[in-house]
Amino acid sequence: MKSKPVIALVGNPNSGKSSLFNQLTGLRQKVGNFPGVTVDKKSGTAFLNETTEISVIDLPGVYSIYPKSVDEQVVTDILANPQHPDYPDVAVVVVDASNLNRNLLLFSQIQDLGVPVIMALNMLDIARQQQLEINAVRLSMQLGVPVVKINARIGEGLELLKVAIEQQIGQPTVSETLFFDPGQQTALAGHDMKGLISDVRQQYQLTNNYLALQYLIQHDGFSFLGQPQRVKLDGLIEKYQFDDVDFQAKETIGRYKRIGEVVKTVVTDKRPLDQSTWSQRIDQILLHPVWGYAIFATVLLLIFQAIFAWAQPFVDGIDAGVAWLNGTLHDQLPDSPLTDLLTDGIIAGVGGVVVFIPQIAFLFLLVSLLEESGYMSRVMVLMDRIMRQFGLNGRSVVPLISGVACAVPAIMATRSIGSWRERLITILVTPLMSCSARLPIYTILIALVVPEKTVLGFLNLQGIVMMGLYLLGLVAALVAAYAFKLIIKAKERSLFVMELPTYKWPRWNHVGITVWDSVTSFVWQAGRVIVAISIVLWVLASYGPGDALEQAENRARSQYANLPTEEVENRVASGKLEASYAGRFGKILEPVIKPLGYDWKIGIALISSFAAREVFVGTIATIYSIGSADEGNDSTIREKLAAEINPETGEPMYTPAVAFSLLVFYVFAMMCMSTIATVYRETKGWKWPMIQLAYMSVLAYGSAFLVYQLMK
């Protein structure tokens, strides 16, 4: 039983559906999965009045109820099944007023399914800019449903929409006359459609002709139908010689014919025939085959410049604050294992990631601005020309760009790709895009070995190196995609079709919600892993087999007795760490990673970061806190890394050769259990995740080896 009414937001991509969702729910929203499938479900709560609370579900954007991809299948699977837990009490269909013809196709299909509907007529301001006037009252009379004028970007018309929803919940109205009645289309189909539809309704206790048609056309995709039911429907199709593909095409033509008649009566078009919109004029530059790519490269460069320039003061402040807190707690609390766990384990580990929140927030902020403005859609169209050469298409750009934030939702976003081969290739190469979990590693290592100076008077050298790492990941993804294109064969060809939204000023409240959700999600997910690993790592680094730590201490004190007291204590701490369980694991791995320039301490960080890449910095911070006698000092993470000495050479451990070897290693390394689990779930087996892990590991090791050997 539903605890509260369910309202589903449905609409074409770029119709403003997600904007309306944010206006209704604000921060009262969450992301999960639809029941029974792994497709993302964005849901939240809203209040129609002081007492009535509703559950709002943002369904994936679709152009029609006939799905072309996995995420689109969810929409029909819900709207065609009244027993589904997310079946709506009211469906609010968000319609782009500037493109009424196309949007009414989906609206009329949902209305014909028998779902109580409300039309939210959005983007009227854009329609007016295009000199289109829409009579909403006449449109409501033509369709027989409530039509509410809204502006989802600024929340205009929201109260009127809530009133309409409340009325539909209280007294739902469903039109008895179908926009397109398949039972009356015998002439169109060339056989007895009335008899066929009647048989389906009778066998499955349906009361709606159009829903019966969907049982015939989409029964293989409906999760709520069992195999015996599908076999019976196949029997009816064969009995009546029903051609579902041909009928679907004729249905679309028939709907558009009637939609055209409706639009003529409700829309007044004052546009000159040869007048182009300002969005089209801008697109002539941004989608230019030469200038378009140059502008996109410039935008990327500015983003990475901003990440370093704007975020650095905040990073330095947090870094110093964490170091001060650690030192203060170590001085004030009694000397005990619990104090060491808190300061050298948990705070050192978590502080290693928290310090990079400003840079992650700025990255999400700038990417969100590109999406809100409409420019990101242009990037997809622009990159389609390149992607096709590598076995991908323009829709692959969405997961690849999303991979800059996190590979897990990026891989799930591949469900919008209709071609199985292109979807699989996109899944296999998306983790090569540098995600936000790599950002802490990049920033700390770049800051160590790349001087903070400007190039050409205004470009930050560290920002240029950062952009180079991201571009290296993109180039590797394209090369890997081309290799998989030659290996994975498929007969089908895919088309890339995307509607370009008009350019808009970003909605700062939506940008804020996006940044807040992304950062809190990153911190929460990373924080849980880091706390757990920091505790385990502290135990492994603080204890060893038998009296190994005592023996290591005695050896160090006798061997370095002539050195100053502080130096002796540092040697003791380092020796005890080396003799601990963690040190022994690192020593086992050291022969394998020594050709890359890494020692056993870095080896410990490599092992722990297999859980999640961002753990690397936290592990390094913990290891160097434990391996130093002055554990209570207020050194920052960067200062600890800079002070680390290679015992074999007596030189700093983190030379440019070692730092760039690590940077390249983490550009290519998989090292994320969540990503592996997601690939397993999306490909329904271990074959492709293991292939992905193997090729990325070989690529990471080989590239890091070459970089170190060439630079040392």
From TrEMBL:
It is a multi-pass membrane protein. GO terms for molecular function: ferrous iron transmembrane transporter activity; GTP binding; metal ion binding. It holds the Pfam family Gate. Mg(2+) 1 binds at N22. Mg(2+) 2 binds at T25, G26. It is found in: Cell inner membrane; Cell membrane. Residues 4-171 form the FeoB-type G domain. The chain crosses the membrane at residues 290-311, 346-370, 390-412, 424-451, 463-488, 522-541, 657-680, 692-711. GO terms for cellular component: plasma membrane. Keywords: Cell membrane, GTP-binding, Ion transport, Iron, Iron transport, Magnesium, Membrane, Metal-binding, Nucleotide-binding, Transmembrane, Transmembrane helix, Transport. SUPFAM superfamilies: P-loop containing nucleoside triphosphate hydrolases. GTP binds at residues 11-18, 36-40, 58-61, 122-125. It comes from the Bacteria. Belongs to the TRAFAC class TrmE-Era-EngA-EngB-Septin-like GTPase superfamily. FeoB GTPase (TC 9.A.8) family. Probable transporter of a GTP-driven Fe(2+) uptake system. This is Ferrous iron transport protein B. It comes from Larkinella punicea.
